[in-house]
Amino acid sequence: MTIGNIWIEAKSSYAFLERNFHLCKRYFGWEIVFLVYTTVNTLTIGLIGKSMGSDENTLYLIIGALLWSFLSTLFHEVAETISWERWEGTLEYTFMAPVHRLTHLLGVCTYAIIYGLLRSILVLIMTVFFFHLNLVGANLIGAFLVMGASCLPFIGMGLGAAVLPLMSPEKGSQATHIIQGIILLVSGVYYSIEYLPGWLRPLSYISPATYTLQGVRGALLNSVPTRALLPEILILVLAGVILIPAGYKIFLAGERYAKRHGKLKRSG
Amino acid sequence: MWSRPWWMPAIAFFVRNWHLYKRYIGWIIAFWTYSIINSLTVGLIGKQFMDEALVVYLVIGSIIWAFLGSVFEEMSEVVSWEQWEGTIEHTFMAPVHRLLHLMGVGIMAVTFSFTRATVIFIFATLFFHIDLSGSNMFGALLVLAASCLPFLGIGMIAATFPLLSREKGQQATYILQSLIMLVSGVFYSVDILPKWLQPLSYISPGTYSLRSIRAAILENAPMSALMGDIGILLISGLVLIPAGYLIFRAGEHYAKRTGKLKRSG
Fold first, then answer.
1. Residue A91 maps to a domain
2. Chain B residue closest to A192 (CA)?
């Protein structure tokens, strides 16, 4: 692959990123709704902590809500890759276009990260004002490093889940929502995983969000130094190194299956 | 010749919505799963802080909101559903009194929402081993029934938004739903809200519903203690339902006059 080819592929990736932002602009009303939903959810969860009369509990819960808002957005945007094409009526064109699938997915994933970050920052600003949060003394760099590392496994999981709407136009997208819900339950978003029933806990250990939340909470609540966060960061990077290629291979296999069985279409 | 009962159109809309739910059963399962997980997640917050009473407090809040929020949402989507299904012109030009149409939709909204809340209740009770013996369940159900009225009324008002704006109307209803949830003390007492938000709590029917149902279940409050809030809910329902109906009719007239009674843009 020459430099010229790489540049062409990079521009194609950027085209998908730009296309997704235009879709965002088109459905701006819905973006406002989801932003309001996420903000209200975060404030509501934070108010539970306030009702217990403890600022630490409030911050504990808010960190969970904000982090989940970012990670779930990331997962959701990647997992809806196929569904978006289907809703917009561009499924056949995108999948028959002379664009390498990796190029396409790179653009989608980059968009998902930027979009997730922008949205989470907006929610964070509103939350900081609402609760008068003070993060002085917190290890913000460490927290961001953990968050950055957590993008990798979530992108991998999103790629794996994105294949579900390929396999089943009617039920695939719904299944990704259920998977997202299960990740929320077992990852200790609002509580330590020790409080889960014994039969659910093994799922916590394989969810990357568990380590993300542990790391970020440690950095923000207990000012844990970055060196002490390395185990979580390494686990997340390792999970990403495994899940991204695995998710990509699963996606390609699903695409081949859909093309062979005529499932590459707009509706059921 | 058989002359149909006057209420038959209402039943027809009830049955029609039942068939719509059957058609989109996959999405219903997805959303109900998310609601169940949401309730369990919120309840686990209480477990984290080693407070069994907090667990029940939070779980009750999430179940009640799953019911009331759903009643509001199903009612507010009366126009949107017609737009999505491509039947808006047919439904609004049919020789059916609007009151019967809304009555059928309203009854289905309550039935659907109650079924959903019951499913969540069963899962949450089994997951947390919640013991409700000794609670005033009859009183709680009475408050819940009274709460339907104002929420149906607010839902009817919100159902006008998609008539006024095809693109943004439904989105505005969801924002309204979020705001009601924030100010109604679903997971906390309204006293801890910032002062500038508290006046909104006093005008939200959800505040009185949640307060009374929690009192009935957590403190075994007798019927006499619940009558005040039941009265408030009934009066607000008696005001909001006719007001909602009149606002809806005004929105319908406006949409028909200005050509907004259509499927898109």
1. yes
2. B48
Per-residue pLDDT in tens (0 to 9) along chain A, 268 residues: 677 788 888 999 999 999 999 999 998 988 999 899 899 999 999 999 888 888 888 999 999 999 999 999 999 999 888 888 888 888 888 888 888 999 999 999 999 999 999 999 999 999 989 998 887 888 989 999 999 999 999 999 999 999 888 888 777 888 888 899 999 999 999 999 999 999 999 999 999 999 999 999 999 988 999 999 999 999 999 999 999 999 999 999 999 988 888 877 665 4
Rounded Cα distance between A167 and B2, Å, is 50
Tell the residue number behind the tokens 């200005």, with chain if given: B258
Closest by Cβ to A43, choosing from B167, B182, B189: B182
Residues of B in contact with A171 (CB under 8 A): 26
Q: Is B184 a member of any domain?
A: yes
Contact, B35 vs B66, CB < 8 A? Answer: yes
Q: Count structural domains, chain B.
A: 1
Question: Which among B26, B44, B192 has CB closest to A191?
Answer: B44
Tokens found for residue A67:
């982090």
Instruction: Provide ipTM, 2 decimals.
Output: 0.82
- Could you give the CA distance from residue A23 to residue A19 in angstroms, rounded to a whole number? 6
- Residue A193 is classified by DSSP as G
Give the CA angle between residues B156, B161, B164 to the nearest 5°. 125
> For chain A, how many structural domains are there in total?
1
Range A31-60 burial, b when 16+ CB lie within 10 A, else e? bebbbbbbbbbbbbbbbbbbbbeeeebbbb
Residues in chain B, overall count = 265
* A171 Cα to chain B: minimum distance (Å): 6
Burial of B226-246, coded b for 16+ CB within 10 Å and e otherwise, reads beebbebbeebbeebbeebbe
Boundaries of domain holding A122:
3-260
Q: Does residue A143 sit within a domain?
A: yes
